Amino acid sequence: NAGVMQNPRHLVRRRGQEARLRCSPMKGHSHVYWYRQLPEEGLKFMVYLQKENIIDESGMPKERFSAEFPKEGPSILRIQQVVRGDSAAYFCASSDIQGEAFFGQGTRLTVV
Amino acid sequence: AQTVTQSQPEMSVQEAETVTLSCTYDTSENNYYLFWYKQPPSRQMILVIRQEAYKQQNATENRFSVNFQKAAKSFSLKISDSQLGDTAMYFCAFPFDSGGGADGLTFGKGTHLIIQP
Fold it and tell me: Exposure pattern of A11-45 as b/e (b: 16+ CB <10 Å)?
């Protein structure tokens, strides 16, 4: 079991570009979560998805951010028209119905 | 809304000493889990220990144990015989009901623990 896989590990984007972060959950897990970690901060919940459904997006910024978890393939967190304030580490976690979450190693996004 | 508070931004102890990291939380729920996660410099989030609120007994995992006081809403982590590899950020986390059968987590701001040789 390969664990939760996130790629890329590091992503550099210029202001105004789009960032796409990918997350493949652990085998058998149907629940995916995205978190953002700013420097010197804890992780902040962004969105919770199940296959083809957004369950809770209460932590997602209203503009420029979107997430999906299609029937086939990884979950994608998409940030359009990135700004410097989007620079952070983005973590994905997955769980089965029992709820214990396993985390990926994160994607560090740097906006220049 | 649930909140999780870690009041110690940084702690430093000598190797082999015992250290306690504090965490308080606020909730109106009665049955829940609490977690401590470790984040070493590699940034990987690693589950250290989990406590179920309905259990009287404090959870223990080798050198890691908790002091769970439900009435006080306190959930501290004790690390015994600390090792250099314990140096990391430690986050207390509380699940909230996202309505989909599983839970997202609310994290505290973390405590940076440094183990000195």
Answer: bebeeeeebebbbbbbeebbbbbbbbbeeeebbbb
**How far apart are the C-alpha atoms of B5 and A80, rounded to whole Å?**
32
Residue among B8, B11, B1 at smallest CA distance from B92: B8
Q: Do B95 and A103 touch (CB under 8 A)?
A: no
Q: Between chains, do A99 and B100 touch, taking CB under 8 Å as contact? A: no
Mutating which of B4, B5, B42, B43 best tests the A interface, going by the most A Cβ atoms within 10 A? Answer: B43
Residues of A in contact with B50 (CB under 8 A): 100
pLDDT of residue A41: 83
Q: Is B86 helix (H, G, I), strand (E, B) or coil?
A: helix
Mean pLDDT of B86-102: 83
Which of B3, B33, B38, B98 is the best substitution to test chain A (most A C-beta atoms within 10 A)? B98
CB pairs under 8 A between A and B: 68
Say if residue B1's pLDDT is above 80: no
pLDDT digits (tens, 9 = 90+) for B17-32: 999 999 999 988 888 8
With CA atoms as reference, the chain A residue closest to B108 would be A42
- Closest-CA residue to A78 (of A100, A54, A101): A54
The pLDDT value given to residue B99: 63
Residues across chain A: 112
Q: Give the model confidence (pLDDT) of A93-105 as tens digits.
A: 999 876 688 999 9
